[in-house]
Amino acid sequence: MLLETEKLTRIYGGVVAINDVDFHASEGLITGLIGPNGAGKTTLFNNMTGLDVPTRGKVFFEGNDITGKSAHEISRMGIARTFQNIRLFKEMSVIENVMIGRHFKVGNKDKGRFRQALKSYFFMSREERWIYDSAMEYLEFLELGKFANDDAKSLPYGHQRELEIARALATEPKLLFLDEPAAGMNPQETEHLMETIRRIRDKGISIVLIEHDMKLVMNICDEITVLSFGQKIAEGTPEEIQNNETVIEAYLGREEED
Ligand SMILES: Nc1ncnc2c1ncn2[C@@H]1O[C@H](COP(=O)(O)OP(=O)(O)O)[C@@H](O)[C@H]1O
Ligand SMILES: [Mg+2]
Q: Closest-lying ligand to the alpha carbon of 226?
C-alpha cells in the first residue's frame, strides 16, 4: 500500500476531528475522500502531510512510519498537496510560483539572488535555468504556459487553482493530495480540471482528492472513502458508495439539519 493510516485520531480540545481512521491510498489510483462539512477531511489531510500532529495513531508511506514528521520531510519523501483555500504568492509571477515548488526540491540556498537572476535568463546559472525550464514544463502541462510572466493574482480563479497544482507537481511527488480543487470553479473549469487530474494520474502520480462535487468524484475516482463526524463510515468503488445506505443517510441527515 502506498499510503496507510492506522487508527489515526486528532482531538482539538473537546472536538474529536478524526477518530480511529484507517485510511489507505493505492498506487496509481485516484482515491476520493468525501463526507459532509466538518467530517474531518482536511484534518485527515493535515495529519498525513505533517501540517498537524495526530493525537494518536500512525501514518505509513511506502511502508515507512512518517507519523509526526515535518511537512518539509514528508514533501521530500514524495507527497505534495494543495489547500482548500488558495495559497499562492499573489505578488509573484506565475512561473515564479512554480519555481518555488521546484526550488524546494533542489534545496537551493540563495533565494534573493535567484529571484534577481530570473530577470534575465542569460544570467542564470545552469541549475537555475534547469529550474526555470522544468517549471515551464509544468506550466505547459497545466496549459498555463502563456501566463508564465503574469502576476499570479491576475489569473482567473480557475487558473489560480491549477497553478497551485502545477506548483505541487514541481516537487515531483509520488502522491498528490488535492483539497477541494474544484471549489469555486464554474462547470467548464471543473470539467477541464477533471481531465487534468486524469492526466496527472496517467503520468503515474497517485492522487487523493477531497471534493464536494459528486459528479466529479463519481466520475474520476477509482476508490472512495467516506468520513462522517470524524469516522470512516464506508469505502469502496464509486458504485458501492453510491448505493451504500449508511452513506446516503449521513448526507441526508446533515441536509435536514441545515
Ligand atoms: N485547528 C483546529 N482547532 C480546533 N478545531 C478544529 C481545527 N481544525 C479542525 N477543527 C474541527 O475539526 C472538525 C473537522 O474539520 P475539518 O477537518 O476542517 O472538516 P472538513 O474538511 O471535512 O470539512 C470540525 O469540527 C472543525 O471545527
Ligand atoms: Mg475541509
A: 1
